[in-house]
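User: Predict the structure for this protein chain, please.
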Amino acid sequence: MRKQGPTLRLSMKPGRTTFLLVFGFALLAAAGCEDPPPTTYIPVPFVEGYLFVDQPIEGIVVAMTQPITGTYRHADAMVPDAEVTIEAENERHVLVYRIVDGIGSYALPDTSIRVKPETRYKLSVRLQDGRTMHAETVTPARISWTKPPVDVLQYPSDTVRLPSPDSLRIAWTAGNSSEFLVRVRCLDTLSYGRYLSPPTDEENARTNNLDKFETRESPTFYSTTRWGFIQTTSAPTVWTAFRWFGLHEVAIIAPEKYFLEWFKLTHFGGAPQYRSRFSNIRGGAGIFGAASLVKKEVFVLKRRR
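Assistant: Here is the predicted structure, written as structure tokens:
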């Protein structure tokens, strides 16, 4: 049974009931005036940035976390006036804020400067209120294709009864990594015929490869990117990775430890949660990671009629 408070136990005598109740409400009112409301939220500075070997330094997001009790607004979260620098091999680079496709992030204006393999990079962020964030990452060794994807893939009419082994196997070098991410991304969900020879006006279409229990209401239904995790340096073509026909990009990513742990945290499981022990950001939250990657464009032909 639930315990009754002192006010209810002592209010049995006539004359004391009103006094005790009023006194109790007065205490609650006083406490309510002094303590912050339970919805008070203090934003935390946040960084999400990745360096890719042989690619420009770009896409470093600096933001403030937002309370889950309100509506998330991307523009309100972004921090466009921070001082962001990256150091490597005694060189210091100042990044600038820019907006690309509606997404704000920091990048190095000189795109001729590329991320180097097996190099330590240090990130420093200073906010206008004086708060600072720092992080370090070491880029992995380069990887390269040993058996790249073919240029054109013919989507089979029956994906269940395929001959084994699959002749469309891909393979790559390990570098100094033992765990890899596979990314399959549709580059154009609208056009299909424009990539044919001769070109046509035929529109693209879905392959209807859905995950179990997935519907149009599922948050991943309209996603153009599929991810996978693998611990070998070769893999067969997985037709279920293609949700669309047409132009795609197949990429293999060799992440360093912070990148990999962040990926597992945010992609594995139905309800990912932030865990500070997987973050290397000092003075804030988030991730500053690095990876080596190889990628290739492929075209997926529709089923033969």
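The longest strand covers residues 285-301.
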